[in-house]
Amino acid sequence: MPKVTSLELIQEARSKGHATGAFNVYNLESIQAVSEGAKDTNVGVIFQLTKSAAEYGGLKNIYDLIMNCIDIYGIRAAIHLDHGPTIDMVDECLEIGFSSVMYDGSALPFDENVEKSTICAQKAHAVNATSEAELGKLVGVEDDVSVDEKEAYYTDPKDALKFVEATKIDLLAVAIGNAHGFYKGEPHIDFDRLAEIRDIVDTAIVLHGASGIPDDAIQKAISLGIGKINIDTEFRYALMRGVEDYLKANPDTAQARKALSDGRERMKQKVIEKINLFRPGV
Ligand code: 13P
Predict the structure, then answer these.
(1) Which of 185, 198, 211, 244 can bridge 233 by disulfide, Cβ–Cβ 3.0-4.6 Å?
(2) Could you tell me the distance, in angstroms and rounded to a whole number, from the CA of residue 15 to the centre of ligand 1?
(3) In 58-190, alpha helices (H)
(4) Taking Cα atoms as reference points, which of 46, 35, 39, 40 lies closest to residue 12?
(5) Full-prediction pTM beyond 0.90?
């Protein structure tokens, strides 16, 4: 298991008025980019992976790559399961050594979400890992799950309190106008709702769908209590643009490593940009 959990990193960052970046990884280049960004800024980070990332790269394989990089780069980092679809997958990740797991019951009725998220929290706490759960439903596509505007709903602050008290989860992911993937127009974050949740809920709060939210809105969300910020789409986009530009400059090339190096460098710059955004005043 990594030496730190998500909760430890988030609490340390919160004590300075900062938030912790959680970056979705799936291959060597994305893991190296996060590692280099964390090393250059000397800031703790969360590596996170979804079921699809595990299917793509192999759960244990990706875990081992991350553990190797934590060691090689000498960084402080947690390894987190993002949007765990089943308790079996939570079990599998904890057994391998993840220091943080999310069970995503946001599509379930409230009581069932409570039931499953409680199991996730108990299993995580039994091995001193962090647990995350989600209440409310975000628009957009994340992993295999697609949610349209009709199905989406915001987190109710009173339900959030009941949910956190019943489940004993460590991190609460909220739906406050955030969405997975790039936004169609300007995102409208419901800051009043966030402040209300923050006032009555003690648990660290997670902002999913942070790609494309303007910088000032991100910093306002941090000032209102957001502790963990998930970045996936912008990070993947950086890889693709780096590779694309290399291919445009070098048509018909077979230099896969050079193209991927350019993509990795763009991802690293994105990680540094986000880490700096998440620590206002530094
Ligand atoms: P984005 O793809 O919008 O950055 O969202 C990432 C996320 O919330 C992963 O759980």
Answers:
(1) 211
(2) 24
(3) 59-73, 87-96, 110-126, 157-167
(4) 46
(5) yes
To the query of whether residue 91 is one of the catalytic residues in this protein, the response is no
Query: Which helix (H) or strand (E) element contains residue 55?
Result: helix 51-57
What is the number of domains present in the chain?
1
| Ligand 1 pocket: which of 50, 51, 180 to mutate (most atoms within 8 A of CB) | 180
Closest approach atom of ligand 1 to CA 82: 10
36 CB near ligand 1 (under 6 Å): no
Distance spanning both ends of the chain, measured CA to CA: 30
Cβ–ligand 1 distance for 181 under 6 Å, the answer: yes
Predicted pLDDT at 2: 85
pLDDT averaged per 10 residues, the chain (length 282): 94 98 98 98 98 98 98 98 98 98 96 98 98 90 72 90 98 94 89 97 97 97 98 98 98 98 98 98 92
* Coil, helix or strand at residue 25: coil
Q: Best of 211, 239, 240 to mutate for ligand 1, by most ligand atoms within 8 A of CB?
A: 211
Domain membership of residue 186 as a residue range: 6-236+263-277
Would residue 255 count as lying in a domain? no
pLDDT of residue 271: 98
Q: Would residue 219 count as lying in a domain?
A: yes
- Both structure tokens of 233: 């789409």
CATH code (residue 25)? 3.20.20.70
**From the CB of 208, is ligand 1 less than 6 Å away?**
yes
Whether residue 211 has its Cβ less than 6 Å from ligand 1: yes
- Note the pLDDT of residue 152: 77
Q: Does the residue 17 lie in any domain?
A: yes
Q: Is residue 164 part of a domain?
A: yes
Task: Say if residues 46 and 20 touch (Cβ distance below 8 Å).
Answer: yes
Catalytic annotation, pick one of 82, 143, 232, 262: 82
What integer pLDDT is reported at residue 146 of this predicted model? 75
